[in-house]
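Subject: mismatched residue count in predicted assembly?

I count 638 residues in my input, but I want to confirm that the predicted structure covers every chain. Input:
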Amino acid sequence: MLDLDKPQIINLFEFDTTVHRILNAYIASAQGNVQTGDVVHLAFSDENGDCHVKSGYIKDTASYVIKIASGFYDNPAKGLPSSNGMMLAFSATTGETLAILRDEGWLTDMRTAIGGAIATRVLARADATEVLIIGAGIQARLQAICLAQLMPDRAFNFHIWARNASAAQVLKTDLNATGHNAITVSDLNVAIGQADIIMTTTNSTKPLFADGLVRKGCHVTAIGADCPGKQELPTKLVATASLRVCDMASQSLNHGEFQTACRSDASLQVTELGHILSGKQIGRTSGQDITIVDLTGIAAQDIAITQAIIDAASCSKTQ
Amino acid sequence: MLDLDKPQIINLFEFDTTVHRILNAYIASAQGNVQTGDVVHLAFSDENGDCHVKSGYIKDTASYVIKIASGFYDNPAKGLPSSNGMMLAFSATTGETLAILRDEGWLTDMRTAIGGAIATRVLARADATEVLIIGAGIQARLQAICLAQLMPDRAFNFHIWARNASAAQVLKTDLNATGHNAITVSDLNVAIGQADIIMTTTNSTKPLFADGLVRKGCHVTAIGADCPGKQELPTKLVATASLRVCDMASQSLNHGEFQTACRSDASLQVTELGHILSGKQIGRTSGQDITIVDLTGIAAQDIAITQAIIDAASCSKTQ
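Triage response: the counts match. Full output below for your records.
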């Protein structure tokens, strides 16, 4: 049995391999080849914490994966990271434990950011360079880094806005220090009107900006909404977009960004990302389309990144 | 972080402490003081296997527990045990991992058997000695052992019947070798009519015997039904019993022994075991009552036995 801690996992992580596997996992999910367990939520309201469990199995793979991820949001004040958890892999033929990856939430952060980058690459305009990132937390940082790493030939300019202006400043400085073009912006409304790509990474429960500001041709990747009541985008923007894409329709409509718009109008079409990635369904049709992708995070991503680490560990052993 | 394998767990296990904690866990559950996550089921039908995840938190305790348990029923033919899995405990104040108990299903087996013994003690007649055990698997064995250990002053006679007569013979021999009075029985119907206590431990999907055979004053503990479609007892016996008790009504009515009877007659009363154990509700009222308890297994038991092992490990460290 493989038992790895976070530094060992980070050491084994390979970006390109993981991108490849997560992309295929989205396709497998859309094609109905992923068995997904119900998402478990435990809430610890007195401690400002929660835990969720995602689980699943991609057909014809060697293992099923159970992911435990918690957020205790007062931890930083105690000098502890807010995220914790692990990925567990079990043999799909015998049930034996194959791997315990004590990643403390790192793999979830990475698969989330890689999902955002994959979706943005396939849906944004080919000439899109101006990326507005709303938020300055771990996902704001990783979405920028992963998008740039996935598309090294595109000269992205990252425009960062966050409610916490000093956090935005820190993120900008850090991105600059690692060779990315990044600036902070003070007027969110102006920045929205100039963006080719908008990535929202907050835990907001109401729209972050008004409808009518997003310009034609823009692509929006919404990462934040992952439970009932959360919403980052104006309902009308969602309802009138040229294309609504999600990682898994059942999750997005239940507890993702599309919950409000689609509850008001059940006829709104939502396409699963995997069908666009496989070419089964059409994505952007013109430079004028406004496209939106909502990513709630799916077990197939957890399985993909876990299996990538297991394979990397197996290779490093045999070398 | 505590990381224990099965031999270490068995070594730390203390019967009396665990009984005490599981009994209190039933009470906490009935009182609404346990937060229980939805049960996750993954099915691997090509491999004759399944996996389920139970999770929960008992209010005002230090940790929440996630239990992963799988059964791959062709494993024995490969020289492997059919059960696998682990119990995981996390801090309910920070989410940090406190313990990985790689018990391979052993703790689930024990908490299930202890639950059966606790329920049988509180519901069977005070003079009940003739125990019919239906089935000869791990639960048949453990139910007998735990019942005898819980009630050392009662001179139980175990009557064993199983579809597989040679397995029944092996169980009988093993129980005799460890000082228990046990015989095998060949006529199930006769044995039912003579039993003070019946414990059913099979994975049957249809009643194991006909209605009308159980005598007045008998207590029945049904262990086997743990998913939709499973049933061990005659529907009419359930419907006409003096008292129906379960570990958790929502589970029992959905996928436990009471699913069929209560679907036919929604007015049937079902009492949660914790209310009987706490004295809030009355159990057996006379030596003539036929009482039935259905145990589907609840997360509160998993939490209780996990916390008992963690505490024992902590004590053994400080000694």
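The longest helix of chain B spans residues 299-318. Marking this ticket as 'not a bug'.
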